[in-house]
Amino acid sequence: MTAVPKPRTGDHGLSSASEYVLPERLTRGLPSRGPLLTEDVWDLRCVLPRTWRTWRLDFTQIGDPTTRRTAKEYVASRLHRGSLGLGPMKATAAAGELRVFIAVMKDLREVGAPRLSAVGRTHLDAVLTRWKPSPDNAVRNVTLLKHLAAHGPFLSQDRLNVLPWNGRSAYAVVGVRRVKGENATPRIPEEVIAPLLRAAVFYVETASGDILAAQQEVATLEAARKGQNLGAGQARERVTAFIAERRAAGRGIPALPRETAHTVPDAVTVDGVPQSPNHSLVSLLTGCGNAAHLRPLMAEAGKDIGYEEGGLDTPMSEWSASGRPWRPRLSPHTLASELSFLRTACWIVIAYLSGMRDVEVRELGRDCAATETGAEGRPRYKLRGRVYKGKDRKLSGDEAEWVVLQVVHQAVAVLREINDDPGHLFGYDGGGRNGYVLLTNVPRRIRAFRDHLNELFSTAGELYIPLTTASPNGHSPDKEDEAEEDAPTPTALPWAFDTRQFRRTLAWHIAHQPFGVVAGARQYKHAAITMFEGYAGTSASGFADEVAAEEAVAKLDYVEDLYHDWNEGGRSAGGAAQRIEAEFDRIRSELGDLPGAVASPSRLRTLLHHLTKTLHPGVLNDCFYQTETAVCRKRAKPLGRPVPMLDMCMRCPNSRRSAVHQPRLERAHDMAQAELGEAAGLPRLQQLAITEHLATLTHLIAEIDPEDTRR
């Protein structure tokens, strides 16, 4: 270990009792300079986005005065100064840094170092042994110790006297390899995201109308009974008339919501409906202030005509999969729940179909939607907001815009209807003294929405959103070099949602579809491909970089599939076939593979990676582009088009075709054959062109499948 530099006299920078914690550059122009170093509780809301939940730093949880002072000075110093090659810490990370500091100091005390000044090599080795079973936490804790050492000159009462693991990165200290390139955030499995998105879109496009209508019904009923003073016996008359109307309409008495059935201990539940009257709703429907005293009358009627879940008159729309209403009618209680689920559905639609981060979605203003006309004459739907993540980006964020689908604008319109915060799209009146509140705890809300969808739309033998054996931590057993044959069967569990997964999943879909176009036109039934292409555009949110990273992984996956097909005896053809097969043969020799088997999957990907640099997957062939031999290069310049031009590859030395292209070639052949059959009225030269194209396709198919009968 190396000794840390001595503190410079008078250079603590934040030792003055009147010193503010936040740098002046962050608070310039704001009404507040933020907390003072002497305060034991820091409120950083003056510089944080409204969506940020961890704005309060409570140093009173540190009992020792010296350690508490050190924690304050350390966090403040990190806000003012950079270390370890990084710039000053953002205020958004301050609360998390304090939590890590407290955890590290606790572990150091437990191994015999009550002060930073008492820490020696044996203590560092001891805590490292404790941390290593959790590599991510270990890297985080080691990094904090390195920052503590770097900020030692600015700590007045306690500091490290050694440089922890000097000259080695935190990853090297912990013994883990930092893999760059592939996003570690797990993507949501297809069998989970597809029904979730389908239901969220249904909520935005259809269910929202029912919910808003029920909300208006309740408001009308409340206004009608406001200020009424019923005379003796009038409440009974109204309730009796209501019961008669329900009997005539074949409807039951509004039942208690299941969530409140515990308030009536003797209530029996039949088919999920508590057999007890919702006297509050009956009072509202009959215009009575409070008809609770008539509960026995309602209960007697319930025994006669039965009970109805919900109770409001607003009908519910049809859920196409079942042909029945998507849910029973609403009550004021279930209406409040459905409003919450509708907000969650809007978040899912906006986040997943835009590629925006959670904070970017929830910080949207009410006027965020904009429509422009594109060069092709189609409307282009956009969202305008702010981006907060990124190096050297202001805490207040930078303006940005996203190209989205029309349904995203519909979600914005729904939120404008149900929310009333003048400044934030996702802000609404929290009631009482809460004032306007923002949508919070989105992962928990998504999990609750999933469970609610399963209650609404599951069938007798199948959950609407199924359980999955995929690991939310992104670990995939089939990617390991050696799989354990006796590994236990993984348990199927509900997917653990996180907001980052939606952005990652969209980026994956864009990159892994043929030719870089997301499956939206097929999978999500949205026809305008240009909107999906806009996702990978120039938004300041950095989404294009994430798509590019996913495309690199997708290309490597594709090349690996080509190798496996060749290694298992698959045929290939085209100008580049011999060159690529020679490269595959060299790699197989280096790996020691046998035909039909791969010795080391991870090393195989490493050896194949260089082929992705020139690969351009195509419909009828792949292009392994080399400038000097590319046929399309001769025409690209006069046509003003980029290379490669994949529609000119049939006779190019850079092209390669294999089994993956055969179904597409066969379809193109059948289309040409049908076109030729209808070509009686076409000019002679056009008929000859189709005939020649058909012959070319027949030849290309035969190169891959000699037994094809089209010749």
Question: How would you describe this structure in keywords?
Answer:
mainly alpha, 711 residues, 7% strand, Integrase, 44% helix, Integrase-like_cat_sf, 23 helices, three-stranded antiparallel sheet, 16 strands
Percentage of residues in strands? 5-15%
Q: Helical region count? A: 23
Structural class: mainly alpha
Shape: globular
Radius of gyration: 33 Å
Order of the strands making up the biggest sheet: 9-10-11
Q: What does the average pLDDT come to?
A: 83
Question: Any low-confidence stretches, pLDDT <50, length ≥5?
Answer: 8-12, 14-18, 474-485, 514-539
> How many DSSP-defined strands?
16
> How much helicity do the residues have?
40-55%
Distance between the termini: 77 Å
Largest sheet: 3 strands, antiparallel
Protein name: Integrase
Region (Disordered): 468-491
InterPro entries: Integrase-like_cat_sf
Organism: Streptomyces vastus
